[in-house]
Design goal:
mainly alpha
């Protein structure tokens, strides 16, 4: 929670609102106040650095363009320069002719002190002395996002082949989550929520294309901090899936029908892990196709009314 989400949550009532908190989370009211009033910046696309997919692919395999270019230059340039300038030398440039020697060229060691060196140091732009901290922060956030996406994509790939995540993959995901949380609070939580809805985002971000993933993170962050908007999004998606499943069934597309019903089952099952959000949705039962009170939890009612099997969804399960 932060100041933004607190304002949203505490400004949607018509007459009055009651705020309850647990002492296992907050020892006293002062700590609760500090938590609800802290300021957190919202994600922007500019907060993440643009990554070149080709360069990212090469660097993951130990190929660095800068080192490779430097190696090529060291091998080729000196030889070519000799070929070009050997024909342009004059007798005065050659040692031993007319008793004159070429003037000794100043080396970096000789120029490391003295007036010339002082002038060069004074002429160095300030941008070369101190790097841009904002650019560094963007670069760190982008690396954390890409690393986390690679860990998630590896687990998704293992699941698609019918296997399960290895111990190394689980450890890497946990480390990637921790690194992401350090630079962007709730970063891994919001990212995984977006990847579950669209696994292609994880694959794109793992390859360095982070644009769509960043926009999805922004949306998930807004949904997490604004319960009413999150409820609207849930109802809208549920209704679309329900209508799509009916059309697919009537058209005889049973594969598409099962896919839509599986997505609905994932949504209903997700409510079991979020009782607070489930209580917010309780007032939207009619919109979800439930016209009676059974005393059961909303997720169970959704499964019962729509005949959905609450099987294992595409959660990371970790």
């Amino acid at each position: 929670m932060d100041a933004h989400s607190s304002y949203v949550a505490l400004s949607r009532h018509r007459d009055e609102v009651d705020l309850h908190y647990g002492r296992d989370d907050f020892a006293n009211a002062d700590r609760l106040t500090r938590a609800l009033s802290r300021d957190r910046a919202k994600d922007m696309a500019s907060d993440y650095e643009h990554v070149d997919p080709l360069q990212s692919y090469a660097e993951r395999r130990g190929i660095t363009f800068r080192d490779r270019a430097a190696e090529i230059v060291r091998k080729i340039v000196p030889e070519k320069l000799r070929d070009i300038f050997d024909g342009l030398r004059t007798p005065a440039d050659l040692p031993g002719l007319e008793g004159r020697q070429r003037p000794e060229r100043a080396t970096p060691e000789r120029e490391s002190s003295g007036p010339a060196a002082e002038r060069r140091e004074a002429e160095v732009p300030a941008s070369n002395v101190a790097q841009d901290p904002e650019a560094d922060a963007r670069r760190i956030r982008t690396r954390a996002l890409v690393r986390h996406a690679r860990a998630v994509d590896a687990i998704f790939a293992a699941r698609e082949t019918g296997g399960s995540a290895s111990r190394e993959q689980v450890k890497e995901l946990q480390k990637a989550r921790q690194a992401f949380e350090e630079v962007r609070p709730f970063g891994s939580h919001d990212a995984e929520a977006a990847y579950r809805k669209n696994p292609e985002l994880a694959r794109e971000a793992a390859g360095g294309q982070v644009g769509r993933a960043v926009r999805a993170l922004q949306l998930e962050s807004e949904l997490r901090t604004d319960p009413s908007r999150r409820a609207d999004r849930f109802v809208e998606r549920w209704q679309k899936l329900d209508q799509a499943s009916r059309r697919l069934y009537q058209a005889g597309d049973f594969s598409g029908y099962k896919s839509a019903r599986s997505a609905m089952g994932d949504m209903a099952k997700s409510l079991e892990r979020d009782p607070q959000f489930e209580s917010i949705l309780a007032g939207r039962k009619n919109d979800l196709g439930i016209g009676f009170e059974s005393g059961r939890r909303l997720g169970q009612d959704l499964a019962f009314v729509h005949g959905i099997d609450l099987g294992r969804g595409r959660s990371l399960g970790i």
